[in-house]
Amino acid sequence: MAKILVIHGPNLNLLGRRERSIYGSDTLEEINHLLSEVARRHPVELEFFQSNHEGAIIDKIQAAMDTAQGILINPGGFTHYSIAIRDALSAVALPTVEVHLSNIHAREDFRGHTVIAPVCIGQVGGFGKQSYVLGLLGLLRHLEQKG
Predict the structure, then answer these.
(1) Do the beta carbons of residue 49 and residue 146 sit within 8 Å?
(2) What is the pLDDT of residue 25?
(3) What pLDDT score does 137 carry?
(4) How many distinct structural domains can be found in the chain?
(5) Boundaries of domain holding 17
(6) Residue 127 and residue 147: Cα distance in Å, rounded?
(7) Which residues pair with 45 in a beta bridge?
(8) Phi-psi category of 16—alpha, beta or left, where left has phi over 0 and alpha has psi -120 to 50?
(9) Whole-number pLDDT of residue 17
(10) DSSP state, 42?
């Protein structure tokens, strides 16, 4: 059974309460529950992790090198400048999908730049909580094809 690490970056613990017009009213717990429901239909185990701290996210990525087969990550504000998270993802060389609730390319100019996407197999954004589902399904498909 494959194991996927789901990483939620900074401020995502405030989902459902922050900027609902951008991020919707779903809480982080509701998103995790939705992903768990999707995972039940596939041979996959999910591990959820949220942190507002760059170093904690990097430590979790590095630990996944020996325990996970893939990573689903919403790097939040780290998307735009965290070379350290990018380097950690590159170092562990696990298939990774970057997800965003909003369409980062349709927002402020700085949000359209991602340093994370170049080390990922794909990126999904703009579909609210469904971005996570689409990202997970894409990652599972990639792992199936990889064999």
Answers:
(1) no
(2) 80
(3) 98
(4) 1
(5) 2-146
(6) 29
(7) 3
(8) left
(9) 84
(10) T
Tell me what pLDDT residue 4 has. Answer: 98
| Pair 60, 91: CB distance under 8 Å | no
Q: Please name the amino acid found at residue 135.
A: G
Distance separating alpha carbons of residues 145 and 21, to the nearest angstrom: 37
CA nearest neighbour of 77 among 95, 101, 96, 97: 101
Task: Give the integer Cα–Cα distance in Å for 131 and 145.
Answer: 21
Which residue positions in the chain have pLDDT lower than 50?
none
Catalytic residues: 23, 100
Take residue 33 and report the two structure tokens written for it: 């529950």
- One DSSP character per residue, 4-20 reads EEEEE-TTGGGTTTS-H
List CB contacts of 72: < 8 A, sequence separation 6 or more.
Answer: 4, 5, 6, 7, 96, 97, 99, 132, 135, 136, 139
| Cα 124 to the center of its chain, rounded Å | 9
Cα–Cα distance list, 108 to 37, 102, 104 (Å):
33, 12, 8
| pLDDT score at 109 | 72
State residue 107's pLDDT score: 63
pTM of the model: 0.93
